[in-house]
Amino acid sequence: MAAVSAVCGTPDKQETKDQAAASPQEWTYFIPQTVSLSANQLGQGTLKTTVDFDQNGKVINISVNGIGVGATTICNGQTIQLGATNDSVKAACGQPSFMSNEQPGTIQPTATKKITTFYYNSSNPPQTLIFSDGKLQE
What is residue 133's three-state secondary structure? Predict the structure, then answer.
């Protein structure tokens, strides 16, 4: 990053954030449900819903109380389905109760990378440079 700044000058804007390395994930939700306890009594229960994502953040499995489904409207009536993105699932269902992040074949938690973006808006044409752990990516 220092070498780029030396050649290109100080960026007009710089942003840095931590980003989890891409890996499969499983999100678990407990969806509230009203259940009949007797003819005159109702109780509150939950349906355990899990959504599994591939390393690209696309839904590859949806399970409601252990039964696999291709699509469901269990989250506030909004449809989530196979192939959906993790952003669309979060928009429909909210923050999961549990998130499991694993690298395939390991039991170690997923590592994070520091992503820094330089914006040179005053150059012609404007340029955006992206660094991963201090190394130029794009």
Answer: coil
**What DSSP string runs through 68-106?**
EESEEEEETTEEEETT-BHHHHHHHH-S-SEEEE--TT-
Strand partners, 125: none
**What pLDDT is stored for residue 111 in this prediction?**
63
Query: In the prediction, which pLDDT does 103 show?
Result: 53
Tokens of 108: 């170690």
How many other CB atoms are found less than 10 A from the CB of residue 53? Answer: 22
* Length of the chain in terms of residues written: 138
CB 47 within 8 A of CB 73: no
- Domain range summary for the chain, segments of one domain joined by +: 1-21+111-138, 23-31+46-103
